[in-house]
TrEMBL record:
The chain crosses the membrane at residues 44-61, 82-102, 108-129, 141-161, 181-202, 214-237, 243-261. It is found in: Cell membrane. Its EC number is 3.6.1.27. Pfam families: BacA. The gene is uppP. This is Undecaprenyl-diphosphatase. One of its GO terms (molecular function) is undecaprenyl-diphosphatase activity. Its main location: membrane. It comes from the Bacteria.
Amino acid sequence: MADLWNAIWMGIIEGLTEFLPVSSTGHLILLGELLHFTGDRAKTFEVVVQFGAVLAVLVLYRRRFASLLNFNFKQTSRLNALHVLLAMVPAGIMGVGLHGVIKHYLFSPATVLIGLLAGGVLMIGADRAGRKVTAEGLDDITYRQAFVIGFFQVLALWPGFSRSGSTISGGMLLGTSQKAAAEFTFIVSVPMMAGASGIDLLKSREFLTAADAPLFLIGLLAAFIVGTLACVTFINMMKKLRLSWFAYYRFGLAIIFAFIVL
């Protein structure tokens, strides 16, 4: 019964934090330490619940994903699959090449706290840079901006840095609006998370058992429901809140967990 409650709590946290620039992976690692839900089984569970967040984005942006297939190799007036592919390349190559190193050395409370602090500094820098906005909406993002944003996404390979935090910061530094950067992050996160989670599941398949199916399904469902609500809420928040506010939250979280976990 305790494991089922752990699944619900971790599914809720994944859904709440996946689309916020506060690091969902970092939150899951830290929460797992507090709940004493750690080890290979817990790591596999963390991978599974991420699919719930992926499904949430697919449902909410289903029309946008359907339109991505309409593209050519010249600059177009609409976001398309080539933008997404260009943004995936840097992190995809680095993620596959360093997968073992990242999993072995970086998935710990201490590295998460470092990522929370470093990511917060980047977000404040992007927020205060005052760059001229050249891409107000998703369809204004250029191929060049998409590709360079992909390099910022590499930072998210460090747990605690946050995929959305690094890509939104990168987008703003390159001239996209805060809202456009956030929505582009959602779109790119689906193939990135699906690919990374798929690789993790293949490598963790020995830890998957039929007995754990209810645990994993409950966590996935919780992440999907909460993630759907959180995704819509976050986009509305991006119209009103500065990115720095999320950075301050990260600093506070890092300080609290430094005392509790370390």
